[in-house]
Design a protein that fits this description.
The chain has about 500 residues and is mainly α. Helix content is about 70%, strand content about 0%. Helix 14 packs antiparallel against helix 19. The N terminus is likely disordered.
Length: about 500
């Protein structure tokens, strides 16, 4: 046995990596990463974590960046005949991204398991640069709908980046790397709408900088999309320093004795994982129960994100807050700042002190009274209103990020490396379906709620937030046995 690296040595002097019984091959990118990790014991993977953070937050920003200005965009595209119909059309634009991603995520996961994590990540960044920019330049409703859908189809990063996070670092940093993915996604889902709120309609908000005759005056929703696309260019350049982690053992670079050892160990690994490839994953109940819960809470989270923005900018006569897109941006920016501090300072302590699923249950229980209080906010005004809205927004987004982080950890614990990207691809596909349904249904319910302000049961927006709580309670119930089963695969 080798010293600190935990490797054996062949007759040719080549180390045999103990992980999965793989022989070291100098042309295999996964072997190079494994060997590098074996040599850097005690070294904190700062560069790897930063690159994961940069790519994840960049790919997440476009998902919800449109929500603060979507109400105004639909209004300006003149597709809605009545003000009450804006939410209906906005829901389908919000859902189109997730519909596109639902169709492709499993495929991207399989591609990443066969050809590498890095190519899929690079293609996603290229798609953001192209389709997110075109969305900001939309000339009509259908162009906005199609470009968002294509952006979703090409967004294949999420499954591969989760697999990559657990492979590029040493095992003791795996949970930290997954937490970076979850926290950067959570922050991106907050900062994205903040960017949309601040930078939409710049010619109206900042006339001294942007004129009405400039491209930003003629396309008032282009600037936030352009800024995100520029960041995607930066992330694409940073991918130069992304090492590939997938093992590619097509060439014969070791002697037969090593191949015999590797084959025998590979047979053992096959027995552990079971036969059937991706189909076998559907029989992995710890994985599927975690994915189901992930989908339920994701549906509620995205429905809330759309409802919050539509509700905040709608007129007080319809039960809203009469906020501008800048007001929404201010609220979400403040939430993002405090969310970052929470992820860095508070969540690590909670993760060590509280069992994962217990933490999810506590979050779900606290979410119920929080959402039930939202319809009463229009009775407030001024500083008190802003204080209450900011606090509620921060708490709700904190709860969402906590559950996302927990389920990412549980899903990756339930599978082995060779099917991890595929497993995450399945999770993203099913989650995307739920997230695609969420904005469309939320938009329809929101439009319906605005028409029933004087109803005797759940009038106005009380109906909307009640429906959000229905999914919260459903998720809470599903965290208990016999439905939820926690497992841990051998890695």
């Amino acid at each position: 046995m080798g010293g600190g690296g935990g490797e054996t040595t062949t007759a040719l002097g080549e180390p045999l990596l103990t992980k999965k019984g793989r022989a070291y091959r100098p042309r295999c990118p996964g072997c190079r990463v494994d060997r590098l990790n074996a040599e850097r014991e005690g070294v904190f993977p700062l560069k790897d974590l930063f690159l994961i953070w940069l790519v994840t937050i960049t790919c997440t920003l476009p998902i919800q960046s449109l929500f603060p200005f979507l109400y105004f965009m639909i209004r300006d595209l003149h597709i809605a005949k009545q003000t009450q119909d804006i939410g209906f059309y906005a829901g389908f634009v919000g859902a189109s991204y997730m519909f596109g991603r639902a169709f492709s995520s499993t495929v991207w996961g399989i591609v990443a398991d066969r050809h590498g994590r890095k190519p899929v990540i690079v293609l996603t960044l290229v798609a953001i640069i192209i389709f997110n920019t075109l969305f900001g330049l939309s000339l009509n409703y259908w162009m906005a709908l199609i470009t968002r859908c294509l952006l979703g189809v090409m967004c294949g990063y999420l499954g591969p980046i989760k697999a990559y996070a657990t492979e590029v670092c040493r095992k003791e940093y795996n949970h930290l790397a997954l937490a970076v993915v979850s926290s950067s996604r959570g922050i991106g889902l907050i900062i994205g709408p903040a960017i949309g709120g601040y930078l939409a309609q710049p010619a109206d908000k900042y006339p001294s900088i942007f004129s009405q005759t400039s491209i930003f005056g003629r396309f008032p929703y282009f600037l936030p999309c352009l800024c995100i696309s520029i960041l995607a260019v930066v992330a694409l350049i940073a991918c130069i320093w992304f090492p590939e982690t997938l093992h590619k053992h097509n060439e014969d670079t070791v002697d037969k004795s090593v191949e015999a050892v590797e084959e025998s160990l590979a047979d053992t690994d096959t027995e552990e994982n079971g036969n059937g490839g991706c189909l076998q994953l559907f029989k992995n109940w710890p994985l599927m129960s975690a994915i189901t819960l992930y989908c339920i809470f994701s549906l509620q989270d995205v429905a809330y994100a759309e409802v919050f923005s539509l509700w905040a900018v709608s007129d007080r006569s319809y039960g809203g807050l009469s906020f501008t897109s800048t007001d929404v941006g201010n609220v979400l920016a403040a939430s993002g700042l405090f969310l970052f501090l929470y992820q860095m300072l508070v969540y690590p302590f909670l993760a060590k002190s509280v069992d994962h699923i217990t933490l999810v249950r506590a979050v779900a229980i606290l979410t119920i009274p929080l959402l039930a209080s939202y319809p009463f906010f229009p009775a407030l005004s001024g500083f008190v209103l802003m204080l209450v809205v900011n606090f509620a927004s921060f708490m709700k987004n904190t709860f969402s990020v906590t559950t996302i982080t927990v389920f990412n950890i549980l899903m990756n614990e339930a599978v082995t490396q060779d099917v991890r990207a595929a497993a995450n691809g399945i999770a993203v596909t099913l989650m995307s379906i739920s997230k695609a349904v969420a904005p469309a249904v939320a938009g329809i319910i929101f439009s319906w709620a605005q028409r029933r302000q004087t109803a005797s049961f759940l009038p106005g927006d009380h109906l909307v937030f009640f429906m959000l709580n229905v999914f919260t309670v459903t998720g809470l119930v599903f965290t208990f046995r016999p439905f939820f089963v926690r497992g841990s695969a051998k890695h």
